């Protein structure tokens, strides 16, 4: 199937736009590579002795001989996060599995993992976005010992997987395999959960009833089963070729989950510099794989958080993408999945209907994904149009072709018969800046709202007016001072049930904010991530109560209908943000708030790779590999066993 022309055009402009920084990145990771030898071969004897002092005798011998690969384990385990609790049991499985292929695995480091579900609407949520870059830094600390020839990364949830990927890309010469924990089994349906939340917001359900409903929904180990940022992460890892095929949505505590973990660990050893084929993550994640990730996000109605995370991931690999790229691809990528909040099904139902392999095959066959990419399995994304099963006797994993027909066409459809002809995520812009709208769950009649502005500086102010009955009217809520510089860009889900109730009552309502709504963005039109934010000179600071605001997803318009002369003469609003800068550890994150890039650049705090810093010899005069060309084409180094 020929590539769709828009896919080709977007990819070509990303390659051209990224040429200097991508070339610098490739040169940098090649300078870090030690060709044909273990990474630890450059360590002095005392360094190496420290690196294996506590290890079992046989593992210590392998590490001491400096001939076989050492696989790093970087884990986001903690037992408060349901999605990450299963990782407690993964390191022994990984260590045993790599021993079977003659390698050693070492637990290199843990990274923090916070739950947005716990911190939602709380002060801790103001650390959430910046936890991504903290995780990347923590990953770098674990990998900085230079003991490792390959790595496995254990993570699932919102900022955690993007942080791990960013950290791994800063060690781009090291192969990487990502290992998920899988979703919890299905509980209370997402539709019922949403209904209880709306009744509670109306005062028609008690707190005890709300808590019982939430507990029936989030009830066990594994990822939350709605299609928010956590499960969007897993879809992206699959289409970028960083998972084994179909690994994302196998529930924890099952034999297949354990066998997939073992197989992934062994694959990490095989693709190290000392294995039969060398596949570093810096060449798996290239311009084409980033475009593939955007397409898969759009085709499945994934989280708007990835309009932040994918640009940040791409920048870590020297690749520059922007919201124009998302917008242009969204116009031609069909919506193939209906998973809550874009439908009633959960990810277990999605997996049973055909899952990730089905989606990848449909998009490949429609010319909407690049097939000629490198994945952890080698050349070609077609290798990932599979789903896993237990091998003979319940041991090992075998991969079979994904089903030709979806098991439930209310959940999953072909590219020829999609739920929608577009991906349901659009860029809007005008005199209020640039923003993202996710409209795949918004009915067509609600996608354009023109109404007077009501301006707020916090979720609490909005909710106070709602509870006081002051919002029973048509309006556009302008919630500002919610960007990364202001208060860390928290998610604003406290507003969702209230706005939904007003919309259901026949009011025309919309939200415009420089904050986030994330993967659970639902049926109310919301222009989010408005960039630049107010603290970066953004025009939301000029809006006043009563200004007529037009939010129009159909035409891509985000506009205050104010006379130009009056608009130009206004003074930006100010707000006392000090309460968001102290307490709950927020004062420790001042360096992030003071150095963060704008939302469209990923709200990142790390620099783009530069040609000026790419030629340093990282091994202090010791032999390194030959300089690689500034291209990823046909990169796959194979070695004799």
Automatic annotation (TrEMBL):
<keyword id="KW-0408">Iron</keyword>
<feature type="binding site">
    <location>
        <position position="224"/>
    </location>
    <ligand>
        <name>[4Fe-4S] cluster</name>
    </ligand>
</feature>
<dbReference type="InterPro" id="IPR042096">
    <property type="entry name" value="Dihydro-acid_dehy_C"/>
</dbReference>
<dbReference type="GO" id="GO:0019521">
    <property type="term" value="P:D-gluconate metabolic process"/>
</dbReference>
<keyword id="KW-0004">4Fe-4S</keyword>
<dbReference type="GO" id="GO:0004456">
    <property type="term" value="F:phosphogluconate dehydratase activity"/>
</dbReference>
<protein>
    <recommendedName>
        <fullName>Phosphogluconate dehydratase</fullName>
        <ecNumber>4.2.1.12</ecNumber>
    </recommendedName>
</protein>
<dbReference type="InterPro" id="IPR037237">
    <property type="entry name" value="IlvD/EDD_N"/>
</dbReference>
<comment type="pathway">
    <text>Carbohydrate metabolism; Entner-Doudoroff pathway.</text>
</comment>
<keyword id="KW-0119">Carbohydrate metabolism</keyword>
<dbReference type="GO" id="GO:0046872">
    <property type="term" value="F:metal ion binding"/>
</dbReference>
<dbReference type="Pfam" id="PF24877">
    <property type="entry name" value="ILV_EDD_C"/>
</dbReference>
<dbReference type="GO" id="GO:0005829">
    <property type="term" value="C:cytosol"/>
</dbReference>
<feature type="compositionally biased region" description="Basic and acidic residues">
    <location>
        <begin position="616"/>
        <end position="625"/>
    </location>
</feature>
<dbReference type="GO" id="GO:0009255">
    <property type="term" value="P:Entner-Doudoroff pathway through 6-phosphogluconate"/>
</dbReference>
<dbReference type="InterPro" id="IPR000581">
    <property type="entry name" value="ILV_EDD_N"/>
</dbReference>
<dbReference type="GO" id="GO:0051539">
    <property type="term" value="F:4 iron, 4 sulfur cluster binding"/>
</dbReference>
<feature type="domain" description="Dihydroxy-acid/6-phosphogluconate dehydratase C-terminal">
    <location>
        <begin position="410"/>
        <end position="603"/>
    </location>
</feature>
<dbReference type="Pfam" id="PF00920">
    <property type="entry name" value="ILVD_EDD_N"/>
</dbReference>
<feature type="region of interest" description="Disordered">
    <location>
        <begin position="604"/>
        <end position="641"/>
    </location>
</feature>
<dbReference type="InterPro" id="IPR020558">
    <property type="entry name" value="DiOHA_6PGluconate_deHydtase_CS"/>
</dbReference>
<keyword id="KW-0456">Lyase</keyword>
<feature type="domain" description="Dihydroxy-acid/6-phosphogluconate dehydratase N-terminal">
    <location>
        <begin position="68"/>
        <end position="383"/>
    </location>
</feature>
<comment type="function">
    <text>Catalyzes the dehydration of 6-phospho-D-gluconate to 2-dehydro-3-deoxy-6-phospho-D-gluconate.</text>
</comment>
<keyword id="KW-0311">Gluconate utilization</keyword>
<dbReference type="InterPro" id="IPR004786">
    <property type="entry name" value="6-phosphgluc_deHydtase"/>
</dbReference>
<keyword id="KW-0479">Metal-binding</keyword>
<dbReference type="InterPro" id="IPR056740">
    <property type="entry name" value="ILV_EDD_C"/>
</dbReference>
<feature type="binding site">
    <location>
        <position position="157"/>
    </location>
    <ligand>
        <name>[4Fe-4S] cluster</name>
    </ligand>
</feature>
<comment type="similarity">
    <text>Belongs to the IlvD/Edd family.</text>
</comment>
<keyword id="KW-0411">Iron-sulfur</keyword>
């Amino acid at each position: 199937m020929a590539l769709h022309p828009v896919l080709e055009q977007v990819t070509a402009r990303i390659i051209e736009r990224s040429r200097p920084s991508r070339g610098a990145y490739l040169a940098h990771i090649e300078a870090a590579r030690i060709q044909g030898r273990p990474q630890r071969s450059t360590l002095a004897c005392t360094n190496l002795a420290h690196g294996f002092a506590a290890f079992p005798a046989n593992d210590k011998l392998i590490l001491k001989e400096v001939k076989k690969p050492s696989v790093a384990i970087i884990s986001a385990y903690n037992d408060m996060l349901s999605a990450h609790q299963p990782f407690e049991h993964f390191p022994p499985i990984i260590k045993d599995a790599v021993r079977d292929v003659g390698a050693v695995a070492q637990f290199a480091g843990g990274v923090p993992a916070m739950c947005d579900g716990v911190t939602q609407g709380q002060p801790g949520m103001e650390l959430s976005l910046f936890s991504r870059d903290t995780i990347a830094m923590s990953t770098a600390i674990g990998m900085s010992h230079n003991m490792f020839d390959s790595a496995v990364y254990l993570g699932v949830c919102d900022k955690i997987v993007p942080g791990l990927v960013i950290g791994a890309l800063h060690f781009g010469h090291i192969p990487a395999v990502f290992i998920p924990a899988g979703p919890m089994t299905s509980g209370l349906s997402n539709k019922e959960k949403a209904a209880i939340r709306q009744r509670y917001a109306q005062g028609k359900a008690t707190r005890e009833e709300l808590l019982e409903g939430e507990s029936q929904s989030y009830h066990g180990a594994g990822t939350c089963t709605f299609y928010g940022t956590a499960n969007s992460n897993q879809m992206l890892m699959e289409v970028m070729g960083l998972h084994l095929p179909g690994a994302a949505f196998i529930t924890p505590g099952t034999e297949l989950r354990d066998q997939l973990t073992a197989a992934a660990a062994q694959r990490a050893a095989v693709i190290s510099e000392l294995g039969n084929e060398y596949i570093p993550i810096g060449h798996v994640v290239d311009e084409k794989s980033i475009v593939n990730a955007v397409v898969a996000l759009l085709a499945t109605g994934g989280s708007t958080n990835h309009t932040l995370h994918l640009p940040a991931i791409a920048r870590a690999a020297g690749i520059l993408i922007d919201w124009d790229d998302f917008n242009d691809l969204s116009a031609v990528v069909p919506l193939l999945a209906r998973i809550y909040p874009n439908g009633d099904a959960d990810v277990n139902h999605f997996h049973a209907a055909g899952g990730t392999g089905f989606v990848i095959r449909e998009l490949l066959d429609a010319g909407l994904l690049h097939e000629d990419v490198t994945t952890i399995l080698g050349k070609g994304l077609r290798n990932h149009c599979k789903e896993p099963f237990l091998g003979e006797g319940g041991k090992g994993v075998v991969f079979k072709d994904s089903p030709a027909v979806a098991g439930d066409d209310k959940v999953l459809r072909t590219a020829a018969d999609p739920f929608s002809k577009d991906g349901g995520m659009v860029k809007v812009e005008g005199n209020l800046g640039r923003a993202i709208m996710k409209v795949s769950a918004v009915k067509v009649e609600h996608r354009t709202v023109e109404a007077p502005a009501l301006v707020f500086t916090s979720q609490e102010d909005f909710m106070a007016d709602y509870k006081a009955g002051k919002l029973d009217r048509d309006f556009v809520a302008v919630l500002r001072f919610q960007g990364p510089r202001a208060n860390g860009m928290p998610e604003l889900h406290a507003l969702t049930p209230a706005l939904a109730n007003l919309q259901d009552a026949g009011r025309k309502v919309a939200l415009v904010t420089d904050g986030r709504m994330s993967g659970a963005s639902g049926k109310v039109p919301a222009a989010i991530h408005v960039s630049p934010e107010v603290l970066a000179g953004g025009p939301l600071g000029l809006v006043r109560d009563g200004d007529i605001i037009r939010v129009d997803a159909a035409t891509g318009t985000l506009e205050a209908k104010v006379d130009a002369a009056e608009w130009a003469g206004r003074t930006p609003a100010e707000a006392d943000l000090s309460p968001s800068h102290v307490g709950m550890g927020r004062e420790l994150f001042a360096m992030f708030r003071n150095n963060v890039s704008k939302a469209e650049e990923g709200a990142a705090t790390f620099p783009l790779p530069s040609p000026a810093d790419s030629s340093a010899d990282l091994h202090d005069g010791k032999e390194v590999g030959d300089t690689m060309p500034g291209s990823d084409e046909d990169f796959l180094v194979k070695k004799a066993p």
